[in-house]
Each structure stands twice: as C-alpha cells, then as structure tokens.
Amino acid sequence: MFKTLHKYASPMHFHALARRWSTPLLWLSAVLFAAGLAGGLVMAPADYQQGESFRIIYVHVPSAWLSMFAYMVMAGAGAVSLIWRVKLMDALARAAAPLGASFTALALATGSLWGKPMWGTWWVWDARLTSELLLLFLYLGYMALQSAIDDRRAAARAGAVLAVVGVVNIPIIHYSVEWWSTLHQPATITRLGAPAMATSMLIPLLLMALAFQLLFFALLFIRARSELLEFEQRSLWVRELLGQGSPR
Amino acid sequence: MTNELREFFAMGGYGLFVWSSYGLTALLLVGNLVLAVRRERRVIRELSRRLPVGAGHDPA
Amino acid sequence: MLSTPPASLAILRREMLRLYRRRGQLMQPPLFFILVAVMFPFAVGGDENQLRALAPAVVWVALLLATTLSLEDIFRGDHEDGSLEQLVLLAGSLPGACALKALAHWLSTPVPLIAMAALMSAVHGLQNETRTALLVSLLLGTPVFSLVGTIGSALTVGVRGGALLLALLILPLYIPVLIFGAGAVRNATLSMASGSEYFFLAGLSVLAATLAPFAAAAGLRARLV
Q1: Within a domain: B57
Q2: Is position B56 within any domain?
Q3: Domain extent at residue B22
C-alpha cells in the first residue's frame, strides 16, 4: 500500500491520474448538479419562516464548506511539503489557492444576497462572516506571495509557511471576533439555519454539496496538471509528453 | 403553465436575490473551469515552444 | 552555537548597533504615526466628545500602520549585505535568532511609538484611566506585531514591492490584538474593568513568542535555501 502511495506521489503518475479522472469527475458533478438543482429549486417546499429565499442555501452552504475545505487542502499540502518536501504537494497547494479564493468570494456574495432580504442588511460584523472575509484575505495574500516570488519552489514553500500560520490564526481570529461581536452587537439578528431540516430540504443540500466537492476535485486536478508541468519542465516525462501531444 | 413559470421565477418575491445567487454561482463555476482549462493549454503551448526540439528523448 | 547567552547578546547588540546607525530612519515610524493621528481631528471635525470617543481606535490603528511600515526592514539590511544567508546557514538556532530580531524590532519601533501615543493621548484629551488602559494594552499587545511581523518580513525578504505585500499578508493576523487592545481602552472610557482584555493580549503575546520565531525561521529557510 505504501508503495502505491509513493507511486502516486510522483509528479508523473499523479499527472496521469489527474488526466484520467478530471473529465469523469466533471460529468459526475454535472449529474449531481442537475439532481440537486431539481430537488432544491423545484421539489423542496418553501421554508415556513424564510419563504423561497432559503433556496440560496443550496449554493451558499456548499461554497462556504468548500472555502474551508480548500484551505485545509492548501495548508495540509503545504505542511506535508514543508516536512517531507513532496513536489506534488507544492503543486496541489498552489492549485487549491485560486479555487479556494473563488469559493470564499462566492460564499460571501451569496451570503450577502441571502442576508439582505432576511436581516435587512448586506453585511453584519458577525464572527462567521468576518472569519470568512479573513479567509479571503488569507487566500489573496497567498496568491500575491506566489506571484511576487519568481522561483516556483521557493514561492510554494513560503506559501506553505503562510498557510500553516493561517491555520493557527483562523480559530484565534474567529473566537476573538465572536467575543467582540457578542459584546457589541445588539442581539436582534436571529441566526439562520434551523437546527433540524426537513429531509426534502436536506437531501438536495447534500447532493449540491457533493456536486461542488467533485467539481472542486476536477478543477484541482486540472490546475495541478498545469502546476506539475511547470514544476517539472526540465524532466524527461514532461518533454516526452509535450513532444507527443503538442499542438504544433 | 405560464402562471406557474412566472411564480417559479418570482420565488415568492425573493426572485432577485435567489436568481442572482444562482447566476453568480453558475458564472463562477463555469469561469473557474474555463480559466483552469485555458491555463493548462497556455502552459502546454509555452513549454512546448520553449523546450528545444529533440532535447528530450523521442518516444517514437 | 549562537543560542548560548553571550552569542544571543552579541546578536542583540549587533541589531541595536545597526538600528542606531540608521537612527534617522528610525524616526520615520513615529513621525508617520503622529501625522496619521493629527489627520484625524480634521476628518472628525470640531466635536471634542466625538474625538475623545474615537481617539483610542485612532491611536491603535495609527500605531499598527506605522509598525507595519517598518516590518520590511527587519531582514532587508541583512539580506542586502548577504549576512542573512550566513545567519540561516550558520546560526545554531535560527528561531532563536528570529526571536532576537523581533525583540530588537519591538524595542526600536513599537516602544518609541508607545511613548508617542502617551503624548498624543494628551493632545486628544484622554482622561487618566483611559490613558493608562491605552498604554498598558499597547505594551501587552505590540509584541505580537513585532513577532508575527517577523514572519511576514521573512516571507517577503528581497521581494519587489515587499512593503505592500507584507501589509497584505500580515494585517489580517493583527485583528485579534486590535479587538482586545481597543476593547480594553473602550472599557476604561466607560469606567469598566479591562482585566480580561489584558489577559487575552498577554496570552496572544506569549503564544506569538512561542510559535512565531519557528514560523519565521521556516519562512527564511523557504526563501533562501
């Protein structure tokens, strides 16, 4: 088992694996999107408190989950690359950053679009929202650092340090903002999200979450392929690959 | 039928918020896919131009 | 081993000497701080009560910005003359050296700024309790600025336009300090106790002191090796 792990950690094998899997993942995700949208937009009943506006949950919650998952991927890959110096992990971390940033931005935007009709305001300085905003800043900082450092290897390792520092900081930031906002926010805003969801509402949410997740992996694979080619441009396998399939 | 459709798009008065959320999501997901694929094409094009011809081992 | 006491003292002495030689530059953060703090009354308008209410927040933010501007210099001089590579390759304890760098930065930038803040709080018309809370919270919280800033400085060493990038990376991480620091001062203006805020600030400083030097060392290694 360890041997297979080692094999797929090699850039060449992972590149082949990512090439094989990205398209099937995309199709699977498209099917799940269709099912999730039908369930969420048509079949699920309107919420008895929030009416039809609750349907934003089906895009908002999956993107919020992914925004955190992508950070875990980025920081986890970064930590592994710092400890064991696995090139593949550098590529994965760099590939995850723009995806995570875009899903974080999406979570913020859809959250605003949900908050406006429900809370009457586009934005509140609540712990969850503020932490999500900070997550976006962390992603953007990571990407700015990547583009500022010319040497790809050094950039990836510096980014890994930054991502791990971010992991330590996110809970601290979250809890300090929570402490701050409970002291200084008038408690007029009721939290969204009922504790128990009806099954007909929950199933589309799970379908959508899975669709987002699979799409994320497909996108991660495609982006990681470009990163691997760039990281490994001097190696034989990249030359062979490009010599064969280049559109010249 | 048209009434039902109109009701569906109105989303109980929240149509603007619901549909702009879904529209943004669609835009972002498709955009992500397009950007990722275009980036891979660009990388392949640039690398195959930069690599000297015959420098690698020819598999054929 | 550079981690032995005489060697650490040597590093610290060298740092302070280097800072002393550039003492003209050392005046820049305090000047910037005063200028930002002086801008605010003009923006707020003539209402003294409003100004007094905003003053703690203004002082904290101005101090944070002035400190951030100076972070770039922590490793820049050493990088330019090549001694940074020597430090990374030869230092017995690179995290220890980073901790000393942070200490030198704290002594050279936030500490003079805190003295300026005492001055500015008189100008902004703060009461005695408020001023005490401001100074205590600054003393407890600013070590985090220097320590976490050392990580940012290590990551951006030798990068074009490093100062702005450094600010982008570091400012989000300063938010907890800002929350508790400004909160302590606000409590004092309302004649409430600020004990819990002080503990949080001290806790953040201790946490930063234990972890940040290792992260800064890892950052330097990532950039230079």
Answers
A1: no
A2: no
A3: 2-50
The pTM assigned to this predicted structure is 0.87
Residues facing residue A51 across a β-bridge: A47
List chain C pLDDT tens, one digit each, 225 residues: 445 566 777 778 887 887 777 777 778 888 999 888 888 888 888 777 887 778 888 889 999 999 998 898 888 888 888 888 888 887 678 898 899 999 999 998 999 999 988 887 777 677 888 888 999 999 999 999 999 999 999 999 988 778 889 999 999 999 899 989 988 888 888 888 878 889 999 999 999 999 999 999 999 998 886
In a domain, B24, yes or no: yes
Is A180–C179 a contact, with Cβ atoms under 8 angstroms apart?
Answer: yes
Considering only CB atoms, which residues of chain C are within 8 Å of chain A?
148, 151, 155-156, 159-162, 165, 168-169, 171-173, 175-176, 179-180, 183, 200, 204, 207, 211, 215, 218-219, 221-223
Return the structure tokens found at C97.
């050296």
Please give the tally of structural domains in chain B. 1
Confirm whether A228 is domain-assigned.
Answer: no
For residue C191, how many other CB atoms are within 10 A of its CB?
9
A59 touches chain B (CB under 8 A): yes
Chain centroid, CA B14 distance in Å: 27
Would you say residue A122 lies in a domain? Answer: yes
- Please check whether residue A15 touches B, CB under 8 A: no
For residue A213, what are the contacts with CB-CB under 8 A and spacing of at least 6?
A62, A66, A69
